[in-house]
Design a protein that fits this description.
- 23% of the residues lie in helices and 28% in strands.
- By secondary structure, the protein is of the alpha+beta class.
- The protein has a nine-stranded antiparallel sheet.
């Protein structure tokens, strides 16, 4: 048995030594000019990631808008100078006939605002209007997370930048108080 293993090992060594010693030398005719190394691919564009932006129309009011990494709106909170309260648009959540309340939360508390869903809203998603207590609007300025709840759906959004939240609160505080 021992002898069989030795023979197998020896045969393997002999067979390995019978192979070519290395690559065949290149003849001058076979040598082709080597192509330059390809330029490195450009760095992929870095996704902007989820972000908030503040829109301030000249006519007054404001909108605090959160967009996802793909640039699509996730939440739009708006106040208008000619209407009390706030309006919330949530394009990514489909309306449910039996559910008529959209709840938003802001800050560590969180401060809550309850909105009534309008069936006459945009074709896609929800539109809701309602009263927002001044504490809710102020919590947006404090940089706390923003939560959305509608039926069984829940969204948790990062806090808006303090500057954007504070500017939104300043422009919308009067509307929030008139909506009470």
């Amino acid at each position: 048995m021992r002898r069989g293993r030795c023979v197998a090992v020896l045969a393997g060594v002999l067979l390995a030594s019978c192979g070519p010693a290395g690559p065949a030398p290149e003849t001058p005719d076979a040598v082709a000019p080597k192509a330059a190394a390809p330029a490195p691919a450009p760095a992929p564009a870095v996704a902007a990631g989820p972000r908030w932006r503040l829109e301030t129309p000249a006519a007054g009011g404001a909108a605090l808008v959160h967009a996802g990494a793909d640039g699509r709106e996730v939440l739009r909170l708006a106040c208008r100078p000619d209407a009390p309260g706030l309006q919330a648009d949530v394009p990514g959540i489909a309306r449910v006939g039996s559910e008529d309340r959209l709840t938003l939360g802001a800050g560590a508390g969180p401060e809550l605002a309850v909105f009534v869903v309008s069936m006459a809203g945009p074709d896609q998603g929800l539109r809701a209007t309602g009263q927002a207590q001044p504490a809710f609007v102020a919590a947006l300025a404090d940089g706390g997370e923003v939560g959305v709840s509608y039926g069984a759906r829940q969204l948790s959004l990062p806090p808006p930048p303090r500057e954007a939240g504070a500017a939104f609160a300043a422009r919308c505080a009067g509307g929030a108080e008139r909506g009470r």
